[in-house]
Design brief:
The structure is a homodimer of 213-residue chains.
Chain A (H helix, E strand, L loop, with lengths): L2 H36 L6 H6 L8 H4 L3 H16 L4 H6 L3 H18 L1 H16 L4 H26 L7 H20 L6 H15 L6
Helix pairs in contact in A: 1-4, 1-7, 4-8, 6-8, 6-10, 7-8, 8-9, 9-10
Chain A binds a DNA duplex (30 and 30 nucleotides) through helix 1.
DNA sequence: GCCGTGCTTTGACAAGTGTCAAGATTTTCT
DNA sequence: AGAAAATCTTGACACTTGTCAAAGCACGGC
């Protein structure tokens, strides 16, 4: 094979790879929408396909398996969530500002992205029964823990007081608060009561995570 | 109809009611076992029946619906869980004793009843997608909140310091800790690391829930 | 004895599932 | 343009699911 033909073939291969990856992402996006709406237990591949521009056969062209698809979805979900609060961390000039900014960001997430987060909790629970997802779920959970820890560590820094908890405990605590707020919001929340108390609770708990004075 | 016959019929009716309720409980128990093992998404009525002494048709004799069955299961689950830590509350003679007892009890629950609790989280998440369970789930969640609050309130009493958090926040925090420990334990826990750090985390967090001095 | 009533099994049903393969269609290269 | 490859649709398959009805079984009352 000539060098030119070789290079041409490589270029084609790369383009195909790109297109392939792009369509995978596109289908995964449709899958995430569907899963977020219906939940893991009630979502079929045909539901997902109907939520995209394609027919149900395509899914097996781009994903080997249902598990493969959902695993990919989980990974894609991760990329969106993990940097959620970094902006607040970067721009806050004082401990109080960070505290208020974080509380507000949490509450905003609750209101805006509730379906995505209930899906996340759903899939995380699935990993307790089905080992297929466990690896990816754990990886994401660790990323989220680090995300939370960046907030807590920076808060301690700004407040000039050492953190009083471990990263694991900090993450677990905020996660619990968020999940509880999600439940209450789903239970019929007249005008953001859940969001407001999530905000207040988070600010208070963050305060108690450093050793003041 | 004579009085005797009347009474006899009533007695029979009552006996039937009792037997009916008893069998319902029996089947619900089998259902709980199965659900705890397989998870909500992968449990069928035939799976449940196979885990009992009966055939799959019986389920529709004692429960009108799959939802009916699972709702009943959830309620039955509640009765077992809600008084879990009351003994520690009743017998602890000092704040430190309550603190250690509660931590130990949480850790023991994690080790002994992990399947049941992953099922609880699974069903609670289901309620975020399916409104059928929502009412019962919320009711149980509130009972659990009260259970946790009995611990915190008693701890504050023994420590002679007022509580620093609301019941909702206290429950959310411990729930988050427990769930995180459950995840880590499921991820392959060599010899109770998750249980130990749950215990330590819970004791520390409980400490920070009162306004000392 | 027999009848009736409650309990249980069995088998069937329609709908829905993941999976796959054969063909139609589009894109790409020469 | 025409061939080759990639992409997409369609329809089918084997299987599972919730549901239900008909038939079999047990047992207490007359």
């Amino acid at each position: 094979m000539s060098e030119v033909a070789q290079r041409s073939r490589e270029r084609i291969a790369r383009r195909q790879v790109d297109k392939f990856a792009e369509r995978r992402a596109q289908l995964a996006e449709a899958a995430l929408q569907t899963l977020a709406e219906l939940g893991y237990a009630r979502t079929s591949l045909r539901d997902i396909a109907q939520n995209s521009a394609f027919s149900h056969g395509v899914l097996h062209y781009y994903f080997s398996d249902k598990v493969d698809l959902i695993t990919f979805c989980v990974r894609q979900c991760k990329a969106e969530c993990v940097t959620r609060y970094d902006h607040v961390v970067a721009t806050a000039g004082s401990a109080g500002e960070l505290q208020r900014g974080f509380g507000a960001a949490l509450a905003a997430t609750l209101v805006q992205d509730a379906p995505m987060h209930r899906l996340w909790y759903d899939l995380r629970n699935q990993s307790l029964f089905d080992a297929s997802f466990r690896g990816d779920v754990l990886e994401i959970d660790q990323s989220l823990e680090q995300m939370i820890w960046r907030v807590v560590a920076r808060f301690a820094e700004l407040a000039e007081a050492p953190p009083a908890v471990s990263p694991g405990v900090a993450y677990a605590v905020f996660d619990g608060l968020f999940q509880q707020a999600l439940l209450r919001q789903a239970a019929g929340d007249d005008g953001g009561t859940a969001a407001a108390s999530l905000r207040a609770g988070a600010e208070h708990v963050l305060e108690s995570m450093i050793l003041r004075r």
